[in-house]
Amino acid sequence: MNKRIIRKEYLDKLLSYKDKDIIKVVTGLRRSGKSTLLQMFRDDLSKKEVTDRQVQFYNFELPENFLNKSWDTLYFEIKSRLQSDKINYIFLDEIQNIPDFERLVDGLYATENTDIYITGSNANLLSSELATLLSGRYIEISILPFSFAEYLQGRNINISNKYLNYEALFYDYVNETSLPKGIDLREGGYDKIYEYLNALYTTIIEKDITQRHIIKDKRAFGNLIRFLANNIGNQVSPSSISKALKADKQNVHHLTVEKHIEYLVESFVFYRVNRFDIKGKKQLATLEKYYIVDVGLLNVLIGRERTTDKGHILENIVYLELLRKGYKVWTGRLRNAEVDFTIKNRNGEIEYYQVSWEISNHETQKREFTPLETIKDNYPKYLLTTDSFTQNKSGIIHKNVFEWLLEK
Questions:
Q1: Residue 64, Cβ neighbours under 10 Å: how many?
Q2: How far is CA 245 from the centre of its chain?
Q3: Side by side, which strands form the sheet with 381-385?
Q4: How deeply is 384 buried, as exposed, middle or buried, from its count of CB atoms within 10 A (0-12, 13-18, 19+)?
Q5: Cα–Cα distance for residue pair 236/78, rounded to 1 Å
């Protein structure tokens, strides 16, 4: 990962739990920066007079760290190296590669003078026995690939320059990749980035999903992934996807579709967004939307000539940014309209967001403002577009989306 980028928000959160009697669990897509975050934290420890003997770092993607080793072998190996009179910092990277890893973590947690940090590339990490064993004793930090601001920082672009062509830079961001390694690969041209994304995607699909869950019909599974990629930001259901696959002469039951989608969500390839009944103030259980973790992966899934329109790609980027801000996110349902995002911020307050590429004509303006105008409560309402000139209306705050993405 490009070491020029200090992911301050994630690092500060990790530092705030240092020496606290709680396990720190960092989750996220492969290659999204989890290992580098731990390394940054480890570097910070060295500035605080923590000796190397107090630190143990295991990368369980390296075969020498997990081949022929059971959880108990690792437990006693780690325990034999502990400094009895000082705090010991234990880093267990990609721990899902260790069978019965929850027993290892539980044993180390019960040991005096240990401060434990683990990472995993599967959300199932916390729905396994680990969550049961350690209920109330861990904190999850979910990491995402680079934001637009981090991407520009990685390219050494001064965002205080008011004359930057943000739209052109945004096209670079979504057409390349938001994954940290992408910035290092830019010098080699787009083909290098594509090769990297293709290899990463293959690893996630083959190793993390297909092999682990023994998926036999790989063609149908691949078509399901491409269907979701082609429909980011659209309401879909397992039944509607099953019907679409049947039209392509693939008979996949909707329960199988539901299960396969769950695997993709667990591996952080896609994020599921439930609907929220704005009037009834309750979550709905059907017709979710899905957004992809890195829109650069769309180049691998559906080609550079994407069938997904740029409005939905922008919507995808806004969704991920709302997650980075620590918001809980739903799509909003009204009787005769939809609002792109209904969120609860960190203070538990509701906000509404509508996203459109531009509102250059009266028809588009009406389409984007009307759903927000229909909401009769007094919570903040935002319209985010690429337009240079914004126009607030009926209490709705219209913002340039690039400026919003770069807000501190």
A1: 8
A2: 27
A3: 282-292, 270-277, 328-333, 338-344, 350-355, 381-385, 397-400
A4: buried
A5: 47
Asked if 399 and 382 touch (Cβ cutoff 8 Å), the reply is yes
Alpha carbon distances (Å) from 368 to 27, 135, 167, 279, 364: 35, 43, 21, 19, 6
pLDDT of 205 over the 50 cut: yes
Question: Two tokens at 14?
Answer: 């990790």
Distances (CA, A) of 242 to 18, 35, 43, 159: 47, 37, 49, 45
Kindly tell me if the per-residue pLDDT of 1 is higher than 50. Answer: no
| Residues in a beta bridge with 116 | 90
Those residues with Cβ within 8 angstroms of residue 373's Cβ, 6 or more apart along the chain or in another chain: 393, 394, 396
Per-residue confidence (pLDDT) for residue 123, from 0 to 100: 75
Beta carbons within 10 angstroms of residue 99's beta carbon: 11
* pTM across the whole model: 0.92
**If you average pLDDT over every residue of the chain, what do you get?**
90
Q: Which domains does the chain have, with CATH numbers?
A: 8-142 (3.40.50.300), 149-405 (no CATH)
Cα Rg, the chain, nearest whole Å: 23
264 close to 270: Cβ distance less than 8 angstroms: yes
